[in-house]
Amino acid sequence: SAPTKGHQNLALGVLRYLSGTRELGLRFGGDKKNKVEGYSDSDWAGDPTTRRSTSGYAFLLNGAAISWSSQLQRTVAASSVEAEYQATAAAVREALWLRKLASELNLEGGATKISLDSQGALSLGKNAIISARSKHIDVHHHLVRERVVRGEIELGYCPTDQMVADILTKALGEIKFKWCRGALGVS
Question: Which domain of life is it from (predicted)?
Fold first, then answer.
């Protein structure tokens, strides 16, 4: 690797943030239901070079994050709905693993709820009918629908201004950043 001055400046920025937030940590407590809840989000075509979207998800247990991811999607999404659905598929794959872990720890029963802020992706995940507008979406993403039908996953709507996973998909202003950080159980 050949780090540049830009890389050094980015690393110093991360170190300054960490130094200024030493008192922060994950705080469990919340509702104490011992039930995992998830949030899924994406930007759309956010990478200026490749136009690929960023998927983000976060799973909380008793008010604090236990699993999260922010990752560039492998393929270019043709619509914001497709980008959100790809992000939801990634969240469902993680939820299935968390369900196995929770089962071994006797923590959870019933469907794992994943909230998303896209009505279109929500409809796509719940509706078994393929429309002309959605037929191009890769089949492997339809594991979302399959797991909803099986009762393992429950999809729900979350208004965009309350989307916890926003922090994982885009740059945020200070107020929204601090709100998302707190909603993930970091205090």
Answer: Eukaryota
